[in-house]
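Re: that chain you flagged

S.,

Sorry for the slow reply, it's been a week of failed gels. I finally had a moment to sit down with the sequence you sent. For the record, here it is as I used it:
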Amino acid sequence: HLGVNVWAGVGAPPPPRDAVGLLSFALRLPEEEAWLALIERTRASGMAVELHDNGSGRVARLRDRDGNGVELLIEKQETSSHGGSRP
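Prediction finished late last night. Pasting the C-alpha cells below so you have them in one place:
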C-alpha cells in the first residue's frame, strides 16, 4: 500500500516535475451514450478532447484544469454467437 498526497492545498506552489504524484487517471464508461455525452459536455466547457481507438475500444483523452491527464474509455461491443451484443 502506497500513500500519495495529490493535493497540497490552496495557494501551494506546483510540485517539481520529478515529484511523485498523480499524472493521469482513467474512467470506464458503461455505455456509448454516456461516453458521447461526457465528451460533448467536456468540449462545451472549452476543453480539448482527442479521440483514439486503442484496439479494444475507444479512448477520449484530455487534460483537466490542473493539467492531469484524463482518459474516458468505452469498450467495443462484440456480437455474440447468439446475435446479441456484449461488452
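What I noticed first: The chain has one helix and six strands.

Talk soon,
D.
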